[in-house]
Structure formats: C-alpha cells, structure tokens
Amino acid sequence: VADLEARLAKDENDHQARYDLALALNADGFKLEAAEALVTLMKRDREWNEDAARKKLLELFEAWGPADPATLKGRRLLSSILFS
Predict the structure, then answer these.
(1) Under a CB-based contact definition with an 8 Å cutoff, are residues 53 and 42 in contact?
(2) Which of 1, 53, 55, 78 shows the greatest Cβ crowding within 10 Å of its Cβ?
(3) How far is Cα of residue 24 from the mean position of the Cα atoms in its chain?
(4) Does residue 4 contact residue 30 with C-beta atoms inside 8 Å?
C-alpha cells in the first residue's frame, strides 16, 4: 500500500496505481477506503481501462453484500458521480 500511495503522491493521475491501491486496501480489510479510491478514479477518468473502476466497484459491492456499511456508502458515492 505504501508504494502505491507513494506513486500517487508523485502522480495523482497514475490510474493503475489508484486501481491497484483500491484492490490492496480491500484485501487488507479497508473496504470503504477501497470504494473511495475507485470512485476517485472514476471522477478523474470514468472510461479508464474500459470502465474498470466501476466494474470492480460493483464486484466489490456484490462480494461485501447489500447491507454492508461500505456497500451502502460506496453506492452513495457512486450515485453522486453518475448522476451529477
């Protein structure tokens, strides 16, 4: 995680680093932070890598379950950028 955060500190538009950071955060149990990283990626470039951030976010929501607090907050974050 630290290496990925360092890459983002150097270049906030390193979309692969942000995507990989989201996956690492999720693996470490930081679900909400993972969702936030993916939403941030979508804000910066919604179409990056064939919409990979949105697709991964939806996969995570499914894995976490509909009642998980990270899913609920993540869905609100996603809606805010899709419908703004």
Answers:
(1) yes
(2) 53
(3) 10
(4) no
Q: Alpha-carbon torsion 11, 14, 19, 20, what sign?
A: negative
Q: Are 31 and 44 in contact (CB under 8 A)?
A: no
- Tokens standing for 38? 């993916």
Structure tokens of 12? 């906030």
2/52 Cα distance (integer angstroms)? 22
Q: Is the pTM of this model over 0.90?
A: yes
